[in-house]
Amino acid sequence: MEQLNFLALLSDLAVSRFVQLPGSIGEDYMGVSEILATIDSEIAKLQQARALLSGLAAPAAKKKVGRPKKAAVAARKAAVVARVSEKPAKRRKKRHLSAEGRKRIAEAVKKRWAAQKAAAGK
């Protein structure tokens, strides 16, 4: 089956490579955008042929440079939300400081400041 696909792909490449030159000067030439589209399709066909020959799947797309599109960002956020929603997070119980604990900390800080002032005064 792969050989038939490969042979069909090669025959398409052979036909597309056969280019006829215009017979007279009055005939229209291909526009730049048409030429670029043809080149892009040729590149895609050659990449498919290479992938078939090397036994790999279609080549992976390269990461584009620049800021990602809104749709890509939204899809990524949706994937993160889906992952987070699958596993419920263990919530840590919030800790509270008692009045007695606050008082002990305040006294310790005052004692430390007094020791620093005494050391600076010497």
Kindly describe this structure:
65% of the residues lie in helices and 0% in strands. With 122 residues, the protein is an all-alpha fold. The chain has a domain at 1-60. Helix 1 runs antiparallel to helix 2 (32-54). The protein is elongated, with a radius of gyration of 35 Å. It starts with a helix and ends with a helix.
Task: Give the SSE layout.
Blueprint: H1 2-17, H2 32-54, H3 70-86, H4 99-121
How many beta-strand runs?
0
User: Helix share of residues?
Assistant: 55-70%
Q: Report the span from N to C terminus.
A: 93 Å
Beta-strand portion reads under 5%
Q: Given the helix and strand composition, which structural class is it?
A: mainly alpha
Give the low-pLDDT segments: none
Radius of gyration (CA) equals: 35 Å
Mean pLDDT: 76
Oligomer: single chain
So what's the overall shape?
elongated
In DSSP terms (H or I, runs of 4 or more residues), the helix count works out at: 4
- SSE sequence, one letter per element: HHHH
Largest sheet: none
